[in-house]
Amino acid sequence: MTTNSPPKRIVYVENGIGYGGAIICLRHLVRNLDRDRFHPLVVTGRNGPQYQEIAEEALWKHIPDRHIDIVAWRAKAESLDWLGKLPVLRFIVNQLIARSDDVFNFMPFFLHLLWTSWRFKADLIHANNEPLCNRAALLVAKILRIPSICHVRGNPDGAHSARWAYSMPDHFISVSHWVAKSMREKLAIPDEKISVIYDGIALNNLSLNANGLSFRQKFNISDKAFAVGLVGLLIPWKGQELFIDATHILKDKIPDLKMVIIGGTPDDCVDYEEMLKQRVIKENLMTTIVFTGHINEMEPLYNGLNIVASASTDPEPLGTVVIEAMAMGRPLIAPDHGGAAEMLNHDETGMLFKAKNAEDFSESVFRLYLNPKRAKQLGKNAQQKAFDIFSISAHTQKIQEQYISILNQNK
To answer: Per residue in 111-131, is it b (16+ CB within 10 Å) or e — as a string?
Structure first.
C-alpha cells in the first residue's frame, strides 16, 4: 500500500456489553488514525450519549444488536424450578430462546451491517471484541471477501462455539501475552495469527494534576477520609461483592474509611446493581460504601482516591483501570491473575493480592494505609512504566502496521 493510494476504509464493530474499557480504547485508536491512510467507520450495537460522542471523532452508526431481551428470557427460564426437573423440556425451551436470538437479534444486525459495509466499500473489518459476540461482523467480512481482524479483550474458552468463531478472523490482536497464551493453549491458534499489542491511552492529554477534591466534594467524601476506589462496570465478575466483603474487614481498622464503587451498569446487570445496593443497606455499610455510577472525567476521580483497586474474580485480559491508574501515578491493588499480574511487579509498581480473597485484598489495602510513602512510591514507579509502554501513538502505529500487512496479503 503506497502513500499515494486512497485511504483504506476500515469498519470497526463494537458489540461489548456496555460502555467500558473496550470502547474507550477503540475511541483512542480511531482519534489517532492516520487519516491519509485510513478512513474509519465505527458501528456500535449500543446507543446512548457516550456512544453518540463518537460521531464527533469519526463516522459513526448505531445498528441495534438487541431487539428482544434474550438475557432476561434465559434468566426467567433458569428461575423456574419445575423446568429444571424436565430436562427434555428445558432443552426445547433453551433452543427456542437461542433461535429467537438468531431471528430477532442476530439476523437484523447482520443484514444491516452487511448493507452498511458494502455501501461504505469497506476494505477491512476490525471487530473490537471476542469473535463469538462479533460473528456477524466476521461473516460480513467473509461474504464481502475482505480481511478481518479481531481484537481479543477477554479470556477465550475452548467451547465448540468458541472454536468455530475463532476460526473466522484472518488475524487476532491480543491485549496481553496472557490472553495470547490462553488462545494458543485452549483454541490452538497459531502464533503467526496473533499479535500482542497493549492498549494505548493519550498520555499527553491526561490531566495529571486534576483536582481530586472536586470528585470528593461531589460524592460527599471528606478530605480527611481514606478512599479506596473499585473502578469497573457493575457486572458480577468485576469483584464488587468481594469489595463489599473487604469493607467489613477494613472499616474498624481504618478511621473514616470510604469504599467507593465506581462504574456504570449495563442493561443486563440492573438486578445485580440493585442486589449490591441492598447488601450495603442490610449490612449497615451505607456510611462507608459510596456508589458513583458512570464517571466521564476520570482524572479527578483517580486523584481523589488514596488507592485504586481492581478486584476481578475472573482473570482480566488487561483492564483499562490498570492502564489509567498506572498512568495517573496512583497506588494500585489488583488480583494476581490475568493481565494485571502480567503488568504489575508486586510491591514495585503496585500490589497483587490473591484473587477472590477478600482477606488478602484487605491486607494489601491496610499495608498501604500504614505506609503512605510506600504507596506514593508505587504510584510513581507505575507511572514511569505506563509512559514507557502505553503510548497511544505506539499503539496506533502497531495497529496500522497490522492493517497494512493484512491488506497487502489479501491483494
So the answer is: ebbbebbeebebbbbbbbbbb
